[in-house]
Every structure is written in structure tokens, then in C-alpha cells.
Amino acid sequence: MTEKIAVVPGSFDPITNGHIDIIRRAADVFDIVYVAVLNNSSKNPLFSIEERTALITEVTKDLPNIRIETSSGLLIDYAREKKAKAIVRGLRAVSDFEYEMQITSMNRVLDENIETFFIMSKNQYSFLSSSIVKEVAKYGGKVGELVPSVVEKALKEKFNQK
């Protein structure tokens, strides 16, 4: 029997409780889930790719079927390399759908054998993004309900807060 392999891609700068929820739910469905930490050249990340990978490793250590890796090329090439049959993406709101549909359509042109699965975020995470978390943390706002404690601590260190 073939293992069901999926990729959950993202920049995860930083990983939020919303991301973790999507990863956990994917881990319940697929045998192996690669969390692909993408190095997006159009973004200016707060955390290095090594820091993001370390944070994700820490907060998913209880999930034995998760593999955390980095990628800087095309997502579809990475998925093919991992023999994944699925890419899993989280959707927060209707506004995410249009962008995700474009990416999914392009991926289908590149490889029609790799499906994209969308998981709707839980209501409590529907507003949550890494950008919002960074903005709130930058000004000393409380983000403890939005990210794991290890991420909250890393944000405070980045912004030199006590």
C-alpha cells in the first residue's frame, strides 16, 4: 500500500496557532506531511529560515508523521521530489480563495497528478496571519493566544522586549 504523502507549504514567519491547526489536521489525514518552509524572495522575513524551521520543529515535536524541510524552488517540484500526491493549504476567508485558486491552477498546469486540498481554518483563526502577529508583537501587544509560547518568546527577543 502506498503512503499518502502531502506537503503543507508556507513562509511561517512566524508559525501561528492557525498554521499549527492546519498542520495537525493534515497529519490526521495523511501518512506523512512535509511542512515546507519556503524562502520567498519577495518577502523580508523577521525570522531566518533556520529559526522558522527550529520553531516549527519545536511546536510539532508530538506529531511523528511530520517532516520539516526548507525549499526555495517551485513548490510543485518539491512536492514531486517528495512523491507527494497532495498540497494542503489553509483558507481563512473568501479573500484567500482567489489567490489560492490562481496558485492551484498554475500548479495543475505544471503537474496535473498533484492535487490541492483546502482546509478551512477554525473560526478562532479566521483573522490570524503571521503579519498581524508580528505587527502586534512589535508594539508589545499580547500574542500568547495566537502563537505557541516558544514563538511568543522568540518574538519578544526579536523586538527586544521583556
From TrEMBL:
- Residues that span the membrane, as ranges: none
Keywords on record = ATP-binding, Coenzyme A biosynthesis, Cytoplasm, Magnesium, Nucleotide-binding, Nucleotidyltransferase, Transferase
Top-level EC class: transferase
Q: Which residues form a coiled coil?
A: none
Where is this chain's protein located in or outside the cell? Cytoplasm
Q: What is its EC number?
A: 2.7.7.3
Superkingdom: Bacteria
Identify the pathway: Cofactor biosynthesis; coenzyme A biosynthesis; CoA from (R)-pantothenate: step 4/5
Example of a GO MF term: pantetheine-phosphate adenylyltransferase activity
- Name one matching Pfam family: CTP_transf_like
* Primary localization: cytoplasm
InterPro entries referenced in this protein's UniProt entry, alphabetically = Cyt_trans-like, PPAT, Rossmann-like_a/b/a_fold
- Residues annotated as binding substrate are S11, K43, L75, R89
Positions bearing the site annotation: Transition state stabilizer: H19
Positions with a binding annotation for ATP = S11, F12, H19, G90, L91, R92, E100, Y125, S126, F127, L128, S129, S130, S131
Q: Could you tell me which SUPFAM superfamilies the record lists for this protein?
A: Nucleotidylyl transferase
Record's catalysed reaction(s): (R)-4'-phosphopantetheine + ATP + H(+) = 3'-dephospho-CoA + diphosphate
CDD domains assigned to the protein according to its UniProt record, in alphabetical order:
PPAT
Cofactor(s) needed, names only, are: Mg(2+)
Residues in domain Cytidyltransferase-like? 8-135
Q: Give the quaternary structure.
A: Homohexamer.
What family is it from? Belongs to the bacterial CoaD family.
Role this protein plays: Reversibly transfers an adenylyl group from ATP to 4'-phosphopantetheine, yielding dephospho-CoA (dPCoA) and pyrophosphate.
Q: What is this protein called?
A: Phosphopantetheine adenylyltransferase
Source organism of the structure: Solibacillus merdavium
* Encoding gene per record: coaD
